[in-house]
Structure formats: C-alpha cells, structure tokens
Write a structure and sequence with these properties.
Strand order of the largest sheet: 3-4-6-5
Number of strands: 6
Radius of gyration: 22 Å
Shape: elongated
Largest sheet: 4 strands, antiparallel
C-alpha cells in the first residue's frame, strides 16, 4: 500500500508545484524577475529563456532591467517580450531593456484575483483526480486479495488525509497570492 501513498504524494506534489509556477509568473503589481520565466527568445533557431541571455534585475520596485550579454540580441529579446502576455511595453536604449510595471487598477486586481481562484480550482481538480486513481489502485489490490477489507478502508482514509493536506496547501497558496494582488 505504501506505493499507492507514494504515487499519490508524488502526483499531488507535481500539481501543487505547477500551481506555484503559475502564481510566480502572475503579475501582482510589483516587478519580479520570475515574471520573465515564460518569455522565450528565438536565439539562432533555439528557444532560449531570457534569463539565460541577459542579466535581469529589479530596479525601484516597479521596474525590471534586462541587460543582454550579447547586445546584438537586444531587439530579439524586445520582440519576445512584446509578443508575451506581460502587458508592458519594453523600452530599449540600445544597451538595456527597461520594463515599467504600473500599479494595477482595482478592476485588473479583481480580474487577477479571479484567475488565482481559477488556477487553484484546476489544481484541486488535478489532486482529486490523483485521489481517484489511488483509490482505484487500492480497490484493485483488494480485488486481487493482496490487501484485506480493513486495509482497504485504512488505505482509503490515508489517501483522503493526503488529499486533504494538498487541498489545504492549494487553498493557502491561493489566499496568499490573492492577498498579494489585492494589497495596494
């Protein structure tokens, strides 16, 4: 039965990590280097993350400064940022690219808070799907006479405890991200 618990923990952890990655790349009104995690530049035919092509730093809380190591790639990086869903216009002075993140409007904050909830619900659905798969594995073990009825019920209780733990973690992450977005 331990392999069923390990399976559930591993898959549920992946769902929580995916949610975390989604939240990290969401704009919350502040500049963050992680906002560029999903921006990929076509560098000589090879998709390359911006962080591998340039030094990226936060300046004055609401600005990102991108300084390419190879200045000839500055226009390519700028185009990749424009094509992304960041919602900011890069300013290129020939040596560095500056991204200014204006404060979010109340309407935009509410939309982002809804998105936070949507992503959290998707993660919970994924966790519940893993729970269903784990329960099916336990039932198969019982059907194959590998475990008894009592062990089946104990296993189902344990899988539910694991599920509850991850659902709580998702809820906590969502509340924290929503509070981060809504703070002025």
């Amino acid at each position: 039965m331990q392999e069923v618990y390990d399976f559930a923990n591993e898959k549920m952890t992946k769902s929580v990590k995916a949610l975390h990655n989604e939240y990290v790349s969401m704009r919350a009104g502040k500049a963050s280097v992680s906002l560029l995690d999903k921006v990929v530049v076509d560098y000589y035919g090879c998709p390359t993350p911006v962080q591998q092509m340039a030094a990226v730093s936060v300046s004055e809380g609401r600005n990102l400064v991108i300084q390419p190591w190879d200045v000839s790639t500055i226009n390519t990086i700028e185009k990749a940022i424009q094509a992304s869903d960041l919602g900011v216009n890069p300013m290129n002075d020939g040596k560095v690219i500056r991204l200014n993140f204006p404060p979010l409007t109340e309407e935009k904050r509410k939309l982002l808070a809804k998105e936070v909830g949507k992503y959290a619900e998707e993660a919970k659905v994924a966790v519940r799907s893993v729970r269903r798969d784990a329960m099916e594995k336990l039932k198969k073990l019982n059907k194959d006479k590998t475990i008894t009825e009592d062990e089946l019920h104990d296993g189902e209780d344990e899988v539910q405890k694991i599920t509850d733990k991850y659902v709580k973690e998702i809820d906590d992450m969502a509340k924290k991200k929503e509070a981060d977005i809504m703070e002025i």
